């Protein structure tokens, strides 16, 4: 049974960080949200926060690099919440290393989650979008797509997402579906906290150092990215498609 006729969004990697902030923002915008992550229990705080604010949310478990799990998750979303017409491909992992130290597993894992995951999720959801003749696909890329030391795998995946986005815009535009990418710069999340630890420093020290190189003189927060996604997912963004919008506190590229 469908809970409502409101727009339904699927946000991957939504248990924490940018994904959680995005799920909360889209719910605040009036959408029902499938909060998708590897562990359903980890999604509960986000789902509870949305429900507590009067919204609709569903915790969904899936490894986005696994076709069967993706298809099952999308089908469950459609059955419980309604046809998903907004997709935010945010799920991501890091396996940073210099090229000569990078293993094949490091490469395959990162490309599998970011690129294969976005492909599988988009392929599963686009059917509902084309049937509804309305859809919004937002892929979370990164300033690392422009190149970043120790991130050959991550940079390749994030650059690949940009090409994927532009192609989706071309193929799906005639069905009323837009596709755009958001490229965050340095954002304080659990992932960047772990990066700081790997570098032998703290997130506070890393933030202070990097903020001096950002024109607006501060690091990003997950909500900064969620605001951009909110616009791209809304009715007013219908003439914006195939774009990469860097949310990095200054110009990129």
Describe the structure.
- With 253 residues, this protein is an alpha/beta fold.
- It has two domains: 8-185 and 222-246, 3-Layer(aba) Sandwich (Rossmann fold); 186-219, no CATH class.
- It is 47% helix and 16% strand.
- The protein has eight helices and seven strands.
- The termini are far apart.
Topology (elements, then pairings):
Layout: E1 8-12, H1 17-28, E2 32-37, H2 40-52, E3 57-61, H3 67-80, E4 84-89, H4 104-132, E5 135-140, H5 152-172, E6 177-184, H6 190-198, H7 203-211, H8 222-233, E7 244-247
Parallel strand pairs: 1-2, 1-4, 2-3, 4-5, 5-6, 6-7
Keywords:
253 residues, alpha/beta, Rossmann fold, 2 domains, 8 helices
Structural class: alpha/beta
Strand line-up of the largest beta sheet: 3-2-1-4-5-6-7
What kind of assembly state do the chains in view correspond to? Answer: single chain
So how many helices? Answer: 8
Number of domains: 2
Sheet with most strands: 7 strands, parallel
**The CATH H-level homologous superfamily of the largest domain:** NAD(P)-binding Rossmann-like Domain
Gyration radius over CA: 17 Å
Instruction: Please name the CATH topology of the largest domain.
Output: Rossmann fold
The total count of strands amounts to 7
Which architecture name of the largest domain does CATH use? 3-Layer(aba) Sandwich
Mean pLDDT: 96
Query: CATH first level of the largest domain: which class?
Result: Alpha Beta
How large is the share of residues in beta strands?
15-25%
């Amino acid at each position: 049974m469908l809970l409502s006729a409101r727009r339904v969004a699927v946000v991957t990697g939504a248990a924490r960080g940018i994904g959680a902030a995005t799920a909360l923002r889209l719910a605040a915008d009036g959408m029902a949200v499938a909060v998708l992550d590897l562990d359903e229990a980890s999604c509960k705080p986000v789902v509870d926060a949305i429900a507590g604010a009067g919204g609709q949310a569903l915790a969904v478990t899936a490894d986005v690099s696994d076709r069967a799990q993706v298809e099952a998750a999308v089908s469950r979303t459609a059955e419980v919440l309604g046809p998903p017409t907004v997709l935010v491909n945010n799920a991501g992992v890091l396996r940073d290393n210099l090229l000569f130290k990078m293993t094949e597993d490091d490469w395959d894992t990162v490309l599998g989650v970011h690129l294969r995951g976005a492909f599988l999720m988009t392929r599963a959801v686009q059917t509902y979008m084309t049937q509804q003749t309305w859809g919004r696909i937002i892929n979370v890329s990164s300033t690392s797509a422009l190149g970043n030391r120790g991130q050959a795998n991550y940079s390749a995946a994030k650059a690949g997402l940009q090409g994927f986005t532009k192609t989706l815009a071309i193929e799906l535009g005639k069905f009323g579906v837009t596709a755009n990418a958001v490229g965050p710069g340095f954002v304080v999340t659990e992932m960047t906290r772990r990066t700081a630890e790997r570098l032998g420093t703290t997130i506070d020290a890393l933030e202070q150092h990097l903020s001096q190189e950002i024109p607006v003189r501060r690091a990003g927060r997950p909500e900064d990215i969620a605001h951009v996604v909110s616009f791209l997912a809304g009715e007013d963004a219908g003439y914006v498609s195939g774009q990469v919008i860097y949310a990095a506190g200054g110009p990129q590229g």
